[in-house]
Specification:
TIM Barrel, two-stranded antiparallel sheet, 13 helices, about 45% helix, about 15% strand, globular, S-methylmethionine:homocysteine methyltransferase, transferase
């Protein structure tokens, strides 16, 4: 039985954290850099640890590490050796573990809570490109190419001490297939897959989310399947579509609904997550069992989920 299944035997909903980069920017960090939030692993690691702690205090049952944009190729461009890159990736996991362990060491934090998990982020190939292609998936790469890219980082993070891997913002089926094949090389490592989506039924590259969910329904190491960094308006429909094709727990952590412009690294449009808890209640009713936030969500959004958890009886 996976850690996710164990928690879901105790409570019906698992609350994830929210955006990391958003909080770093709110606290004065300049993330206009190809490394994005991973830049702060170099410049201000203590702030990353503090944001993890803030999400735990807000009510998160899972915190996701700052590894999303930390790749060997990306760090090499910054002049880092392979050894230095490994140290930075491990540091990201260690910061989350330290925040989790400090939180859990306080008896008052254990009341009505499960011991939080740390998920090590595996961002898509498009995150390394820093051109928004994680929302398109138009790489033109084969499964073999993508395995070559992902294998070194996955090997580091599989042994870094996290509870599981969060393979997230996956825009195309071929990349998920590459990651699924790589997981078999690390058979004791659990993971979830979450795709980015362009509408209520298709992931970013145009494949049906139902087809993607079905493709991995029997993968023994996958503990959840779903979507992230997708507008809230699409989430309920995507949950229904995924739920129709898999028996695995459904994970969703949408962005605010704003649109990312990779050209000038800015968000535009209006946020549609003002009543996040009410939306989350709808997603839960549709079948999601792991719910959190992605870009432009904050500890306040996660606190609203925890408040909902306390109002609505999600316990078995």
């Amino acid at each position: 039985m996976s850690l996710i299944e164990t928690i879901l035997q105790q409570q019906k909903l698992i609350i994830l954290d929210g955006a990391l980069a958003t909080e770093l920017e709110r606290r004065g960090c300049d993330l206009r850099d190809p490394l994005w939030s991973a830049k702060m692993l170099i410049e201000h690691p203590a702030l990353i640890r503090q944001i993890h702690a803030d999400y735990l205090a807000a009510g998160a049952d899972v915190v996701i590490t700052a590894n999303y944009q930390a790749t060997f190729a990306g760090l090499a461009v910054r002049g880092m050796s392979g050894v230095q890159a490994v140290e930075l990736m491990r540091l990201a996991v260690q910061l989350a573990l330290e925040a989790r362990d400090a939180f859990w060491a306080e008896p008052r934090n254990r009341v009505g809570r499960v011991r939080p998990l740390v998920a090590a982020s595996i961002g898509p190939y498009g995150a390394f490109l820093h051109d928004g292609s994680e929302y398109r998936g138009d790489y033109g790469l084969s499964i073999v190419d993508l395995k070559v890219f992902h294998r070194p980082r996955l090997a580091v993070l599989a042994s870094a001490g996290a509870d599981l891997l969060a393979c997230e913002t996956i825009p195309c089926l071929v990349e998920a297939q590459a990651l699924a094949e790589l997981l078999s090389e690390f058979p004791t490592t659990p993971a979830w897959f979450s795709f980015s989506a362009r509408n209520g039924s298709e992931i970013s590259n145009g494949e049906a989310i139902a087809h993607c969910a079905a493709a991995f329904d029997h993968h023994p190491q996958l503990v959840a399947l779903g979507v992230n960094c997708t507008p809230p308006a699409y989430i309920e429909s995507l949950i229904h579509a995924a739920r129709s094709s898999t028996s695995k727990p459904i994970v969703v952590y949408p962005n605010s609904g704003e649109v990312w412009d990779a050209t000038d690294s800015t968000w535009s449009g209006e946020a549609s997550c003002s009543d996040f808890a009410a939306q989350a209640r709808t997603w839960y009713a549709a079948g999601a069992q792991l719910i959190g936030g992605c870009c432009r969500t904050t500890p306040q959004h996660i606190a609203s989920l925890r408040q909902l958890f306390q109002i609505v009886d999600f316990r078995l």
